[in-house]
Specification:
The chain is of the alpha+beta class and 221 residues long. It has helices at 3-9, 23-40, 57-61, 81-98, 146-149, 158-167, 198-213; strands at 45-47, 70-76, 102-106, 123-132, 179-184, 187-192, 219-220. The chain has two domains: 3-132, NADH Oxidase (3-Layer(aba) Sandwich); 146-215, putative nitroreductase (tm1586), domain 2 (NADH Oxidase, 3-Layer(aba) Sandwich), CATH 3.40.109. It contains seven helices and seven strands, in the order ααβαβαββααββαβ.
Length: 221
Amino acid sequence: MELLEAMKKRHSVRQYIDKPIEGEVLNELQKEIDACNNEGGLNIQLVLNEPKAFDSFMAHYGNFKGVNNYLALVGKKCKDLDEKCGYYGERLVLKAQQLGLNTCWVALTYKKIANAFKIENDEKFTVVISIGYGRNRGLKRKSKTAEQVSNISSSSPEWFKNGVEAALLAPTAVNQQKFNLTLNGNKVKAKAGLGPCAKMDLGIVKYHFEIGAGKENFEWE
């Protein structure tokens, strides 16, 4: 499954069956985690067979069931940590989709479990991503138009149009899609709106845009 296909097929899934992540799927997922950590200077950790984080009133209120595995997004404290976690976290989300797994970005409806993952003194924990074999494939969500999130026009290059369409497939907090993409020559400016997890959403959106547009076609402004 190509990344663009994974983007189109991937939807948030909150309920999972009792099937462990193991074998080649686990190996490939861990390889991608290691690659993201190396490239992004992060400390993303895969937590397996740990059901307590989603065994709370908030998790049940959020309709999470059967969550035993999750990714803990951790990195060194810096001003762009949220954006980096969004970028590399979404890279892992799409890799998971390619491996036949399902995921959901989770900012609030879980609880931190002591010793489930490590956070060094110079690091900060951001969010988790539930991961596993879903009871279903999730539901397609409503989306804004390309014109609502960018300065796209009939004369825009095809790569920009493709990038914006890919960005519209990106998951964002409460599905608000509060971002804007502006084309100027071969440079693209990505701006986060106001709202919860806006900077993390921007990282997710930028990863989608790069895949759709092709990194060789533009520069970030």
